[in-house]
From TrEMBL:
Residues 42-189 form the DUF7582 domain. It comes from the Eukaryota. InterPro entries: DUF7582. Keywords: Membrane, Transmembrane, Transmembrane helix. This is DUF7582 domain-containing protein. The chain crosses the membrane at residues 6-27.
Amino acid sequence: MGKDDWLIAFAPITLISTGGFLATNYFHNRESTGDLDYLLEPQWASDNDVKRPLQNAMIRTANQLGFTEDWVNDDMAFFIPEQSRQDLFEMAHEQNIVLWEGPNLRVLAVPLEYALERKLRRIHNSRKHVKRGSDIVDVVAILRHLRMQNAGPLSREHIRTLNICSFEMPPDSATMSEIASAYRQEHDEEAFD
């Protein structure tokens, strides 16, 4: 990216990320991730003069590191309406969890409650999903962080009904009980009041 004069003019470009990159770089509850899911800053999201060179820089980097060309991808953008993207960026800036930063690129964590919302809904709605096990581990890590911020147990109903930007059904009581049990087993305390 630093070799592209066009991109340098807009640097640093900010992305927000979730999933495995959040798990490995912030929570350290996983050793690795298969990809980096990101959203590009709303001001550049529809600007192919910025998007295309950025994607090309990412592909070059992937090739140099021996990764697949889609190891850094914005697939999550398909599920997030434009206004929600702006809201997520504002919340991410306010939260200010920096996952990675260089002279030309900055990667912030998505709002943690949004990451939790997405994981809980995938656990509930895709019971046989290949990532179910890692999703539960990620949810336990996020809950631990939020519980520590809260200085005590969290509201189970508030967490269950998080709806920052999702279209799937919220988790049911059985899913929340499964998560509470996983949390209790890992941390020997209750996640929810």
